[in-house]
């Protein structure tokens, strides 16, 4: 729901009459080899179909919010997931609002679409409306257990492989920058040029060596986590390393780089490696915790009920 943070400025950010109008767009596309990268302007967008008309831009913006909410609630998921992916790509075509983590949103939306489109398609009991719009079992507050799905499993596996490649390629990209080799990559974002003064730097001089050692250690541990990601991501015994590293990375992205999207997306990517049994165990623990909190009699976990039924 990153679009919600731009409410009130949708015409300025996304409309042809905003910060980037059609003339600037066309001139930038023709400026091959110029100062502006042509790859930043090569994405397609449904918003490009609209003239400088704030009514249509606002209508598209609020329609996107509605579609995202419907998908989050699990309504008509086979249709809303496709529209969500189209809208996510469309609202990221303008480079004015694009951040480094935005392409990861496109990846998540794409595999979410694949999973919902294929979910239950091999189930012969589905009606034609369910095959087109989606199953009723995807309702967020429904109590019906989801059956095993080949399509959902395929989407999860593809997401896992793609996310592992993203993590490793990100680490390889960092090694092309000298600051990451020298161990001072975190020092610069922690000392913004317009906020850092001579007095503040001088005050840190007394403990500069220990500070740089700590920043270098954290930086190298981060690189080790990224390079080793494919080797522990699929191993259940390494779940604390997988989830703990993603959570620490979330905190680091907020505190060091002031990036609000990288952390949540990385955590979602890490959570995609959990098996169905692990998700069921987490759900059972949450239910037990809620029951004890509100003074209700705890319901036996699903795993215990299955073992009792077999006995």
Structural notes for this entry:
The chain is mainly α. The chain folds into 3 domains: 2-147, no CATH class; 168-274, no CATH class; 277-310, no CATH class. It is built from 16 helices and no strands. The protein has helices spanning 10-14, 22-30, 54-73, 77-90, 102-118, 128-133, 150-174, 178-182, 187-190, 198-203, 208-227, 229-232, 239-257, 262-271, 276-293, 302-310. The protein is globular and about 70 Å long.
Write the layout of secondary structure elements.
Layout: H1 10-14, H2 22-30, H3 54-73, H4 77-90, H5 102-118, H6 128-133, H7 150-174, H8 178-182, H9 187-190, H10 198-203, H11 208-227, H12 229-232, H13 239-257, H14 262-271, H15 276-293, H16 302-310
Helix pairs in contact: 3-4, 4-5, 5-7, 13-14
Keywords, separated by commas or semicolons:
16 helices; mainly alpha; disordered C terminus; 3 domains; 311 residues
Give a brief outline of the structure.
Helices cover 61% and strands 0% of the residues. The protein has helices at residues 10-14, 22-30, 54-73, 77-90, 102-118, 128-133, 150-174, 178-182, 187-190, 198-203, 208-227, 229-232, 239-257, 262-271, 276-293, 302-310.
Separate helix tally: 16
Secondary-structure element series: HHHHHHHHHHHHHHHH
Number of strand segments = 0
Mean model confidence by pLDDT: 83
Radius of gyration: 24 Å
Question: Separation of termini?
Answer: 46 Å
- The structural domain count equals 3
Strand composition percent: under 5%
Percent of residues in helical segments?
A: 55-70%
Largest sheet: none
Shape: globular
- Are there runs of 5+ residues with pLDDT below 50, and where? 32-41, 307-311
Return the structural class: mainly alpha
